Amino acid sequence: MGGLKDELLKAIWHAFTALDLDHSGKVSKSQLKVLSHNLCTVLKVPHDPVALEEHFRDDDEGPVSNQGYMPYLNKFILEKVQDNFDKIEFNRMCWTLCVKKNLTKSPLLITEEDAFKVWVIFNFLSEDKYPLIIVPEEIEYLLKKLTEVMGGGWQQEQFEHYKINFDDSKDGLSVWELIELIGNGQFSKGMDRQTVSMAINEVFNELILDVLKQGYMMKKGHRRKNWTERWFVLKPNIISYYVSEDLKDKKGDILLDENCCVESLPDKDGKKCLFLIKCFDKTFEISASDKKKKQEWIQAIHSTIHLLKLGSPPPHKEARQRRKELRKKLLAEQEELERQMKELQAANENKQQELETVRKKLEEAASRAAEEEKKRLQTQVELQARFSTELEREKLIRQQMEEQVAQKSSELEQYLQRVRELEDMYLKLQEALEDERQARQDEETVRKLQARLLEEESSKRADLEKWHLEQQQAIQASEAEKQGLESERSAKERALQEAMEQLERLGRERKQALEQYEDVKKKLEMATSKTKSWKDKVAQHEGLIRLIEPGSKNPHLITNWGPAAFTQAELEEREKSWKGKKSTE
Fold first, then answer.
1. Which residues pair with 66 in a beta bridge?
2. What is the pLDDT of residues 100-123, one digit of tens each?
């Protein structure tokens, strides 16, 4: 809804700016009432005279006050607009209000109808800021499309020359300047009025009426199945077909959505270049004039259905939006560049001020240096005069010194002779001292050797005494150990004696146990013989009774009632007895 409001505002702006102003520089209330009434009529907005009169009352809050016309326009008209009005009728109403006051009186190559279409195209391509202008990039885009439709060659150099001569104080052209530019034929030389009008009409159909493709084709009827030539017009979501290209007699529509598809058909029934458009409830067979037109229509319809699936706007609107976004991006980059240039310029000015300050400081330093140099030269002259006086005095002193030096030289020679004698004496004394030192070193060495021998002797003596003590202690320990072994031996003898006694006692007890074992064995044999006779008696029965005996180590037999009461050997013996009984019977 915001995009529709912006488009309506552009046309309304042209109409509003064309209204006459009174002596105070404001638009009269009567003109605003007429404009508002006409807008409500063409936009199919309910007209509210009471609200209109209330808003246009004579006080400081009305539309003719400093608040302007926009609050009323937004509240009572634009916010109520639905997309059910005739846009061409709306644009023509606004055009009618502004054309007489603004259109140039000089003869143009285009008609007023063509100028109206250029005016509408301008509103579509202009920037979203007021006063409305069209920037050079959009002018180039429009002129290129017109030249392409007219079949001419685009003259880029001519347009570049036109941009160079463009007024630098303006960012673009107004709508009336654009109409004059196209109408004077500057970029359509060699083209007649009809060709230019045809080009403007085709560009108008594409950009404003959203006509993606149009042309004559044959359509097969749904009832009589006859073929009829129709003028087809393809838009973003519909294909309309008319009796002729004047669009006065509309015969029907083909509604397109993302579920539709288009297919090529083989030639049949004497018709060539056939293709099929499948929709939700109907199928349309169409015949193009040639294979090229057939392929163009199939491609155009396929692209339209693809855009519906993606939810994308028509190609020319999407391209316009991309160009605007690119211009905004370039403008932002340019503003950023200008900001950086301003920062660099400010930094450069600061550097210039710093350099100027440094230059002044250098000039002051140079003047101070010149004064100091002047003072230095004056001081040098004074020092030079003083030095000359001092030099004369130094010459006299030097002569006196030379005489004293000669005297001192003879005294020095005598002194040196005495020094040489003393050096000889010193060398001899050094040799004597060296001999004495060597003798003392030898004496010290001998003394250290004697002391070391004495220490070794005392150490060996201490070791001998230590070994003697250890020997005494070992002897004492051996005596104590001997006594301990003796007592241990006696204790072991006593223990051995006791063990022998216990062994004899155990022997006796063992003998008694053997005797008892023999008695028990005899009793057991007697009990076994008695038990065997009783067991034989019991074995004559069916095995229902079994004596309680110690369990056998062999595996037990298992019956349906649990563990068996007899062993495997007993079972075999019973089987043998049963077989014997059966054989005797």
1. none
2. 888 877 788 888 999 999 999 999
Summarize pLDDT for 401-449 with one digit per residue, the tens: 888 888 888 888 888 898 888 888 888 888 888 888 887 888 788 788 8
How far apart (Å, rounded) are the C-alpha atoms in residues 483 and 476?
11
Q: Find the Cα–Cα–Cα–Cα dihedral 71, 75, 79, 80, rounded to 10°.
A: -140
Amino acid of residue 33: K
d(CA 197, CA 311): 33
Predicted confidence (pLDDT) per residue in 57-105, tens digit: 655 443 444 456 788 788 888 888 887 888 899 999 999 999 888 887 7
Beta bridge partners of 228: 219
State the helix-helix crossing angle for 2-17 and 112-125, rounded to 10 degrees.
130
Task: Report the distance separating Cα 507 and Cα 513, nearest Å.
Answer: 10
Strand partners, 563: 558
The CATH topology of domain 213-313 is PH-domain like (2.30.29)
SS (H, E, C) 216-261: EEEEECCCCCCEEEEEEEEECCEEEEECCCCCCCEEEEEECCCCCE
Amino acid letter, 232? F
Task: Give the single-character DSSP code of 129.
Answer: S
Q: In what order do the strands lie in the sheet with 283-287?
A: 250-255, 238-242, 227-235, 213-220, 283-287, 274-278, 261-265
* Model-wide pTM > 0.85: no
Q: Are 216 and 230 in contact (CB under 8 A)?
A: yes
- Class of residue 114 by CB neighbours under 10 A (exposed 0-12, middle 13-18, buried 19+): buried
Q: Which helix (H) or strand (E) holds 332?
A: helix 315-539
Return the amino acid letter for 547: L
Strands 274-278 and 261-265: antiparallel
Q: What is the DSSP string of 53-95?
A: HHHT-SSTTSTTSTT-SHHHHHHHTGGG--S-S-HHHHHHHHH
Q: Tell me the torsion sign for CA atoms 525, 530, 533, 539.
A: negative
- E strands, 145-243, are 213-220, 227-235, 238-242
Q: Where are the domains of the chain?
A: 1-208, 213-313
Ramachandran angles phi, psi of 559, nearest 5°:
-110, 180
User: Is 232 in contact with 212 (CB distance < 8 Å)?
Assistant: no
User: How many residues appear in the chain?
Assistant: 585
Structure-token pair, residue 402:
């030379």
* Residues 299, 305, 308, 312, Cα dihedral to 10°: -10
* Beta-strand pair 562-563/558-559: antiparallel
